[in-house]
Amino acid sequence: MVSSRKQRIDTLVAEVEREFQETSGSTGISAPDARLVEALRRVPRDAFVPDDSARFAWENRALSIGHGQTISQPFVVALMTQLLELTPESRVLEIGTGSGYQAALLAELAQEVFSIEVVPELARSAAENLQRQGYRNVRVRAGDGRRGWPEAAPFDAVIVTAGAESIPPALVEQLKPGGHLVIPVDSHWLGQDLVLVTRGADGTLHRRAVLSVIFVPLVGGEGGTVDPWS
Ligand code: SAH
């Protein structure tokens, strides 16, 4: 039986909610909040995947977007977004624009989104796509995101959607007091630990490993990636 677009979205939301529940022992979060669920329903994921994958757009899995890159799994996108604790006033920095899907979700929940993508073709197609979908509060730049976006800093939230060897110090520096940074950091085992860094109101940093995840690598040499905790 062919299901309608609405049924597919309902099924995806149910799966995302189930995965929040199943991983709550590790993440400490048992459900996505209502605003996030609404945003997941609104963002047309099918508009952010290549035409030949559009039929899989509402499945809870990562998909190829060319250039060896992927659009992340909806559950992971949702979890990372929830960890940022966005408000309608938040200014957010994303590293790894990719398809632009995560940027669109952030744009639904925050005031302003700044997103950096290292593959120029992806930066261009994501920016076009975001514009076509009516997202006016996202700015996309091509370049190495590990340096952040100093002219627009500081940010209430920073999200890195590629696996890093260590946490780029510039991204921590560009985080406001009370802000959250979420980043997959290579684990000693396989893949990465999704790490949540919070800057306290007094400026102090706290970090917590939330869940094991697998991301494509954050590219770039070793320069300037000294882990502030090591
Ligand atoms: N957020 C994306 C998922 C992107 S996959 C989405 O919603 O579709 C990770 C992306 O990070 C890839 O597009 C990759 O090219 C990009 N990337 C890797 N290293 C980077 C770097 N140093 N700076 C900016 N982008 C980078």
Automatic annotation (TrEMBL):
InterPro entries: PCMT, SAM-dependent_MTases_sf. It is an enzyme of class 2 (transferase). One of its GO terms (molecular function) is protein-L-isoaspartate (D-aspartate) O-methyltransferase activity. NCBIfam families: pimt (TIGR00080), PRK00312.1 (NF001453). Catalyzes the methyl esterification of L-isoaspartyl residues in peptides and proteins that result from spontaneous decomposition of normal L-aspartyl and L-asparaginyl residues. It plays a role in the repair and/or degradation of damaged proteins. GO terms for biological process: methylation; protein repair. Keywords: Cytoplasm, Methyltransferase, S-adenosyl-L-methionine, Transferase. This is Protein-L-isoaspartate O-methyltransferase. It catalyses: [protein]-L-isoaspartate + S-adenosyl-L-methionine = [protein]-L-isoaspartate alpha-methyl ester + S-adenosyl-L-homocysteine. The gene is pcm2 [H]. CDD domains: AdoMet_MTases (cd02440). Its EC number is 2.1.1.77.
